[in-house]
Write a structure and sequence with these properties.
Elements: H1 3-12, E1 16-17, E2 29-33, E3 36-42, E4 45-49, E5 61-67, E6 70-76, H2 79-91, H3 96-105
Parallel strand pairs: 1-2
Antiparallel strand pairs: 2-3, 3-4, 4-5, 5-6
């Protein structure tokens, strides 16, 4: 999927675009920055797609989760791992707490 296609889906699911300068991490918002797409799913769960030159060693795709005041990030270059979770979350097939538990506890679910 291209960023444009993802943005179209985000808007379809009620997400709105914000500027990086005004981003307050509010749920259902997103912004673009330096060719990357940053999506605030909830106050505790976000999804990030960054260009290869901006992700040395960290992966192009990242899921960030906060639980009990501690934040964890799982970065990958494996697009299916990332998009399966993002799209399932947008469609309501996976809940916030399921993904946060997975990211924060490093459980293997596949």
């Amino acid at each position: 999927m291209t960023n444009r296609e993802i943005i179209r889906e985000l808007k379809r699911y009620g997400y709105s675009r914000v500027d990086i300068d005004t981003d307050s991490r509010a749920a259902k918002t997103f912004y673009t920055y330096c060719g990357g797409l940053h999506i605030n799913g909830t106050g505790n769960l976000s999804f990030h797609i960054v260009p290869p030159q901006e992700s040395p060693g960290l992966g192009r795709f990242a899921i960030c989760a906060t639980r009990n005041g501690e934040s964890s990030q799982l970065g990958t270059d494996h697009a299916p791992f990332f998009f399966r979770r993002l799209l399932a979350f947008l469609k309501g097939e996976r809940k916030e707490n399921e993904i946060i538990d997975e990211i924060c506890t490093d459980r293997k679910t596949e």
